[in-house]
Write a structure and sequence with these properties.
26% helix; 3 helices; six-stranded mixed β-sheet; globular
C-alpha cells in the first residue's frame, strides 16, 4: 500500500513539474515563407486575407508590405494573383527573435494546391546561408533574407503567400519582377557614377575648347 501511494505521489509530482516546464518554455517558432493553395475571399489575415473581395495583385501587395513592420509576428497570409512572372524574388527584413535580427530557424515551402504552379523556392540569409524546397532549415537565420519562388505555371496563378510563425515584425525591403522595386547593386552604381563623371568631364572639355 505504501509503495502504491509513493508511486502515485511521484507520478503526480512528475506531471506537475512537466506542466511547469511547459509553461516556462517559450513557444517554438520557425520563420516560414510559403506559397500554398489559395483560400476563398475575403478570408482572414491568418488564413488568407484578400483585397476586399478579390485577391491582391502580388506586385501591389509587396509594395504595401514595404512599410516598416507591416508584417507582424505570428502568421499572416494573403491571397495573391502572381503578376510578376514565372520567377520572383523577395528581400525581407525582420526584427527577428527578441529584436536580435536573427531567427532561430527558417524555411521556404510550397504547399497544397500551389505545388501545381510552383516547383521550387530558396532562401539566402545575410551571411550566405542557404536552403531550398525540401532542404534543411537555416539555423540562426540572419536578416535581411532573399526568398525566390519559381514555377513554369506560376504566371497568373492565384495562391496564398504566407509568412508563418514569424518571430518578429517584418517588411519587404525590395522585390524583383515586372513593376517591382529594386536596389541597384554596388557595381551598377559604380558604372552609373563613372558614366556621369565621364559626361561631365567631356562637357567641361567641350566648353573649354570654345
Amino acid at each position: 500500500m505504501l509503495i502504491r501511494t509513493f508511486h502515485t505521489k511521484a507520478a503526480a509530482i512528475a506531471a506537475l513539474l512537466f506542466s511547469f516546464c511547459m509553461v516556462l518554455a517559450p513557444p517554438a517558432r520557425a520563420d516560414i515563407i510559403e506559397v500554398e493553395g489559395s483560400t476563398s475571399c475575403p478570408g482572414s489575415l491568418g488564413g488568407g486575407l484578400c483585397n476586399g473581395s478579390s485577391p491582391f495583385l502580388l506586385s501591389a501587395l509587396l509594395l504595401t508590405l514595404e512599410t516598416p513592420g507591416s508584417t507582424g509576428s505570428g502568421t499572416q497570409k494573403y491571397v495573391v494573383t502572381n503578376n510578376l512572372g514565372s520567377s520572383y524574388t523577395i528581400s525581407l527584413g525582420s526584427t527577428g527573435q527578441n529584436n536580435t535580427g536573427i531567427a532561430n530557424n527558417g524555411q521556404c515551402q510550397v504547399n497544397g494546391g500551389a505545388a501545381s504552379f510552383f516547383n521550387s523556392c530558396s532562401i539566402t540569409d545575410n551571411t550566405g546561408q542557404t536552403t531550398s524546397l525540401g532542404g534543411p532549415q537555416i539555423n540562426n537565420m540572419v536578416f535581411p533574407i532573399t526568398i525566390k519562388f519559381t514555377g513554369p505555371s506560376a504566371t497568373g496563378a492565384t495562391v496564398d503567400l504566407g509568412f508563418v510563425s514569424m518571430q518578429g515584425s517584418s517588411d519587404v525591403a525590395n522585390f524583383g519582377g515586372p513593376g517591382g522595386s529594386s536596389v541597384p547593386e554596388p557595381s551598377s552604381l559604380l558604372l552609373f557614377g563613372t558614366a556621369i563623371a565621364g559626361l561631365a568631364l567631356r562637357a567641361r572639355q567641350t566648353a573649354g575648347g570654345k
